[in-house]
Amino acid sequence: MNSKVINRATWCYERLLRLYPKEHRVEYGECMAQLFRDECRDSWNQARWNGLVVLWIRTLIDLSKTVVLEHLSNLKGRNMMPQNIFQNPRKTFKFTALLSFIIVYSTIVVFTLWLLPEKYGSVVRIELEKIWSPSLKLVSNPYFLENQYEFIKSQMVLEKVITDLNLDQTFARRLGAEKLTLDDTCILLQKRIKIHQVRGSSVIEIWVYDSDRMLAAQIANQIVNVYKSVAPEQSNAIDRSKVRVLDVAKPALHPSFPNRPLNLIMGFCGSLGLALFAGAAAAFVVWMWGKVPTIPRAGQIR
Amino acid sequence: MTITKSNHEPPVPLTPAVFHILLALVSGERHGYAIMREVEETTQGSVKMGPGTLYGTIKRLLAAGLIEESDERPDPEMDSERRRYYQLTAEGKRVAREEAQRYARTVQTARLKGLLHDPA
Description:
The complex is a heterodimer. By secondary structure, chain A is α+β, with helices and mostly antiparallel strands. Helices cover 63% and strands 10% of the residues of chain A. Chain A folds into 3 domains: 2-78, no CATH class; 83-116 and 258-279; 120-247, Alpha-Beta Plaits, CATH 3.30.70.1130. Chain A has a 4-stranded antiparallel β-sheet with strand order 2-3-1-4. Chain B has helices at residues 16-26, 32-42, 51-64, 90-112, and strands at residues 30-31, 67-74, 82-88. Chain B has a 3-stranded antiparallel β-sheet. In chain B, β2 (67-74) and β3 form a beta hairpin. The longest helix of chain B has 23 residues, at 90-112.
């Protein structure tokens, strides 16, 4: 029984010896396995299974420490330790560039894939047709469309949108606040809205961005509904317009932000550039340091 | 592991594992298991080296020229398996002696300060 237990334990230890560097394993693997077998025999003779368990705990601690030590020692022997790398500008360049690239690009990947909050954009397209008043005849306003942008984003329109969709409560919940004022909610909503004109036409796009894709579409459509209802009442007669909805806003299938593929490609290029710069800077410093003459300490001159 | 090889530089304290291995070899050549048992007995169980520590230290001592491999043969008091024997080199003896003298000076200082009492 005891030889079977000892043989089995030694077999397991021999498998663990593969963690050591090959050279060390080839030179001392047999001796180490032999020593472990002797220890197993002693432990078994003294305290049976208890002795064996204690021995295994001690051996695993010893193994985990010395595996790391031997691998580091192996690197040192191959001049791959940091202190050797930083004596050679070329090695410094490679090491610094590689390390910088790994750190920067992995940070970008983690942020892009997991940490950056997603935002979905929904767009509603409308055509604005100016209402001509007979009394104004040929008077035209060159800033007609820009005025409409401001009107769409004005409190007059947005407060109604907020009230209709209970956006003050929605945004307050997200911020962990009990309540938000209409003014504060208006400010938050204005930051989510972007208005673009389709070049060469009177078509404008109203984009709304939100982490909730359904809500983004709802807000965009509600903005147009409210705008349509109040647009004819604008006090400035020159700017009165008729609104025709060309495309209703739909919930987006994919987030507009972050643009993951683009971020990853740009991040790769940016990280590469930064890594090359960092490597070159470090290599330059090492090269300059090598040019500095060393002053011998007292006692070293013979 | 940096160990001085000349008398011009002050001796560097040895790690406990290194010193005890050198001490174990003072009385003659030993194989790995015997070294480990002797260290355990002389330190009354306070220093226990696993195979990784023992042979990692032996490797470094061989590289530093403080010990050398003497033979490979079975231990008559154990089984018939062939074991690698190690012995101190002259340099190893010198380093062990210097380390022991450093300990002695430390013990002397402790006695003078009343931390330790003279056994005599």
